[in-house]
Design goal:
3-stranded antiparallel sheet; single chain; 2 helices; globular; 5-stranded antiparallel sheet; alpha+beta; 133 residues
Length: 133
């Protein structure tokens, strides 16, 4: 199973993340966010604890990814590894691993609700996410 794939979108960027379970799906969606920016080449040298909440699973995914972008911008860091330690339909806790930011090939401004979809498939879970660049 692939971790993620970039998919065509007319105006912004979009990707589809995959996971054997919902936890792996959320981890792979975070990985895809930074992979699309070209920000994964730096070895991880720092860790942060992160928490996110949402009114449902979709809102939680958007808030999780948005929190990672917020940290990237405010802390000037990029992240390469994501360990979700607790996950429900409305909250998650995770340890993220990263490094001081290096130049990225393309900067993601925001995660959107446009065409957002999380679904269970015969092989696991998948999410379609559109981001504003």
């Amino acid at each position: 199973m692939n971790d993620y794939e970039e998919i065509d979108h007319t105006a912004d960027w979009a990707f589809r993340a995959y996971g054997r379970d919902i936890t792996e799906l959320f981890q792979n969606a975070a990985y895809a966010l930074f992979a699309l920016e070209g920000a994964l080449d730096t070895p991880s040298v720092l860790t942060r604890e992160i928490h996110a909440q949402g009114i449902d699973r979709e809102a939680l995914l958007v808030n999780w990814l948005s929190e990672l972008l917020f940290l990237q911008e405010t802390q000037r860091e990029t992240y390469q590894k994501f360990e979700i330690t607790n996950l429900s339909d409305t909250a998650l806790s995770a340890t993220i691993h990263g490094a001081p930011a290096q130049p990225v090939t393309k900067f993601i401004k925001a995660v959107t609700y446009h065409d957002l979809k999380i679904q269970q498939t015969a092989t696991g879970w998948e999410a379609t996410v559109v981001v504003d660049v």
